[in-house]
Amino acid sequence: MSYGSSGASRFFGGSPIGVILRLLLLCVIVGLVLDQLDLDVFRLLDYAIDVVRDLIANSADLLRTLLRYLIIGAMVVIPIWLVLRLLKIGSGRP
């Protein structure tokens, strides 16, 4: 069987057995490095979940603050804009 002649070879990018063996070796090496760095997959997963939660919590606070500033600013800007538009219409300019 030549390279790329079967669907499995095309999917794996080579001989399926060879690719699986290389992936297994890579998994062992990465596991060894993570263990030496005292990193735990579940701890990393917990950390990732905490980061997402913090992002969501901070985003909510940011949106609340921006909405507050929007409303306060609109109370000043919209009436001024409206008066200026009415003055331009009254003067005949577009």
Structure description:
This protein is mostly helical and 94 residues long. Helices cover 83% and strands 0% of the residues. The protein has three helices and no strands. It has helices spanning 7-12, 16-36, 41-91. It is elongated and about 80 Å long. The mean pLDDT is 87.
Brief rundown of the structure:
This protein has 94 residues and is an all-alpha fold.
Key phrases:
3 helices, elongated, 0% strand, mainly alpha, 94 residues
Topology:
Blueprint: H1 7-12, H2 16-36, H3 41-91
State the share of residues found in helices, binned by percent: over 70%
Let me know the number of strands.
Answer: 0
Between the first and last Cα atoms, what is the distance in angstroms?
77 Å
Main sheet attributes: strand count, strand direction, barrel closure: none
Query: If helices are DSSP runs of H or I spanning 4 or more residues, what is the number of helices?
Result: 3
Helix/strand-derived category reads mainly alpha
Report the β-strand fraction as a percent range: under 5%
Radius of gyration: 31 Å
Provide the succession of SSEs: HHH
Give the overall silhouette: elongated
pLDDT < 50 stretches: none
Q: Could you tell me the mean pLDDT?
A: 87
